Amino acid sequence: MGTTVNTLAGLGSKLAIGTGNQVKIYDITNPLSPTLLYTKGIYGPASDMLIYGNKLIVAVENGIDTIDLNTYAYYHKSTYGSTKALRIYNGKLYAGDGQGIKVLNPDTLAVLQTKNTSGSVKKLEIMNGVIYTVEWSGLKRFNQETLAAITTNSYSISNPELKAYNGNLYASKNGTIVKLTFNSNAVVTANLIGDKVDLRNNYSTGYLTYFPNGSNLRVSTMEEMVSAVCGNGTTETGEICDGNSVECTTLSSDYVSGTAVCNSSCNGYDEANCEEDGW
Prior knowledge:
Layout: E1 7-11, E2 14-18, E3 22-27, E4 35-41, E5 48-52, E6 55-60, E7 63-68, E8 74-78, E9 83-89, E10 92-97, E11 100-104, E12 111-116, E13 123-127, E14 130-135, E15 138-143, E16 149-150, E17 162-165, E18 168-173, E19 176-183, E20 186-192, E21 203-205, E22 208-213, E23 216-221, E24 245-247, E25 255-257, E26 259-262, E27 269-270, E28 275-276
Antiparallel strand pairs: 1-2, 2-3, 3-4, 5-6, 6-7, 7-8, 9-10, 10-11, 11-12, 13-14, 14-15, 15-16, 17-18, 18-19, 19-20, 21-22, 22-23, 24-26, 25-28, 26-27
């Protein structure tokens, strides 16, 4: 890509990437040869982005940008300082910036609520009615409806990634992926095997998943897995046979005659009718 890819988002065959001073939108119908459709210069780095309807919403240095993915109409909303994190939850847009947390109408970007925190929110996730932020003073929690702080013991994360997925909260800490839970005010961690890239914004289409990874995109592939069906007459992956028979002499040099039939589990042949040399 020629520059650091900070974030990405996608809709259909369109993939948007955010860099230090640009948003680029590609047609990825042919993933081996993406076509650049649109480039927009922005102020400061695109730190986060998401899709809302047909609209791309981008966290930028001095506010929030939106780009219509059909017409490429552009709009900028000035806020306080750097916007670093964006999430949609219950029809509202939550933004983490240099001041704290802002709740906005995602259609108009009108500010509905604000919460001054310790400042410089770098990451923000929402799960089960709780907002989780990583800011200069560490990991914090807030009530999603009222924005009231939830007491949380000190827990610092440098160069953070934060992701809520499938009812769990994950973070990167010192290069290690950890699962975060809470025992009252205390943060409880469990180390996991993984890569911090896995916690970044990603976009899946077909059997491909795109991740921002330095000056490149990581593209992971996942082939469709089809379970073997014993008894359908076709020898599939994981089966030795399926409904067929072979001469016993092909199974062992000890046999001189007979026919072996595929067994009921398709994992071998029934050699009961195979005959050995009587000598």
